[in-house]
Amino acid sequence: MAFRRRSTSGSKPQLKEKVVQIYESFFKGEDVSKDNDNFWDEFFLLKPKISYIETEMEKLSIEQLITLQDNIRLLFIKCITAFECQHQLRIIFSLKTLTCLVSSLYKKFRINPTFEFISILVIPKDTDMVFENLLGKCNIMLREPECVVVKDLCLQFLLTIVTGTDNLNENPALRHLMSNSVFEPLTEVLSNNIYQTYHGYDSILLLTLLMNVETAKKTNPYVVKLSLLDKEDTLNGYSQIIRWSLEEICQQYRSEEIAQYSNNTWFNTFTSVVSNMLFVPDTIEEHNIELPQEIRVIRMNSNEIKHMPAKKVFSESMSGILIALYEAVHYNRNFMTTLTHCHSSNNYELHPSVMQQTQSVTNNPDLKSPSDNQFSNLLVTFFQYCSIVMQDTKTEANANNSMLCFVILSSITDDQFANSLMHDVNLQFKVDLYRSPTRRYMFVPDKSPKPLAAALLDLMIEFMLGHMMKKLPLDQYMKCISIIHRIICYQKRNSVRLCYNWKDLWSSLITVLKFLMTYEHQLSQDINIYDLGIQIVNIFNLFITYGDMLLPSPSSYDELYYEIIRMHTVFDNIYVLSSRNSSAISEHKLSATKLSNCLINIRAIINHYIPKIDNWLEKNSVTTPVGEEILEVVRNNYDTLTLKLLLDCLGSFESNKSNHDLSSSSLIKLMVSKVVKDTRQSLKHSNTDLQQILQNFSLYTNPS
Fold this sequence. Notes:
By secondary structure, the protein is mainly alpha-helical.
């Protein structure tokens, strides 16, 4: 209902909506429900003008808000009361109004942290009771077979509360979410094959943020509940949502890769071949890598096509999903069982609203459902995503995401059960690791199905060879080598012989050592290269000491010695470098000393075999021996070789989760803050077209 308002300029009369008239009276402090007992029932049938509320709230000063607090409190309570009605449009409009109201007050609070905005919403003595009632009704809306739009708007409202402040621990409303948990209804959403496709991402994002709230009792209830969660369908749903989000990034990268390849001319191909032929591996430079725009799964608004589980999920930052994966891997051992679970179709396409909407997208190849890849699982998809995000570590966002990927991989390789899954020869998968076309090195991983441990080693080799630059990402290299170390330690403890081309790993490690030695002067000004050298040398010490328990055949052990002998100048130079710095006054003196000590057995092998090979060459009048001849010399002279058992140099075989906690806590806090800001930016309530919701309302029926 509207009335005409004539313009003073004599122009055509303008229409003013009835709801706007009510808002005007409301913000003047008038009693809008006076003399009308059914006012609120009628009010929540009017489509809210979100932009008007936001604009008016922004105009008000804190003093004016205090003056209006009676009206605001009444509106807040009436919105909550409307949740109980059976008419779903009333619930939808009350949720939109409530979300807009709370969002506007949070905006004031971010500008002035001394503003006690909760007292504007609720009488202080009734705060606990009102929030308990509010969150109880949110629990019901998330649990009951409500309209999909209602659940979506309820999640938006909860996310608005959680992301109200940049720092979660400075958000005064979160104590109510700690004492009135929404964990159970969120996990029920994840366990439902239909609801997880509509609300899975928002549910996981909300859980992730709530798990990062510090409480007065030092024990976050959401972390405790996640650590105890053992429902298979819920864990699989959690895993499925993460995999869908990661898979979207892989598909986007794959599409851009194909497009770039199709645009290449014969001249581009020719120049690339010539460049590869002239490439000299001794001079490793930084490369500018163009990736898909760095990735955050943008939340689907209720007016978008909801059946697409990350089909057209545009990406700016994957931080939220990565933190969710970290929390699950770090706190819940049962989650490890989902890492290799092959997700099959959830039959969500059978839902009536989905069937109607899919007609418009079935012919679009860009909207291919991740469920079509029936043989994929979370770990395979995560490895593929890592190969993309680890290509570019120059920007802060990419570096943080890449580092968190390493932290997640460290937690996975720390777990005995996860390691057993990755080494199971009956669980072999084809893992397509993505490579930047600007990278020029000889490592080409085998793309045939293999145990996941082998794919992880390929991923680590790709990272090592692709990031030898003057601004060396030392922390990521340290994590990379420690992951390799953990894999080998697991194999040693359990006498597992992984069928893998170990020569690729050894040559890559030696290449990194050569790089450290070549650019020692530039690198040592900013980082401690000796700690990285220690980790690399200890990998060789593990193979030297326990190779008979690790390597698939005796010939592999021979090849290890062959590689050490073939590249003996690298080890000799590293020893000279570390010895020189261990005897001089240097800030890295202790590390340099330890590195020189770690090289004892490698130098023993070199000093033992080099003279024998020279004698063999002289005796047989050979100037250029072939590899098999050197291997024969190696095999014939094991008996006279003396090595030491360097227990101190082999590193710990025990779990280092406590160290992970210390090293990753600051990274997680930094990334959580970014997720909060990104999520709040995506929660543009006025951008949700309510008219579109009304038009599609018939589609969002109960998906039971």
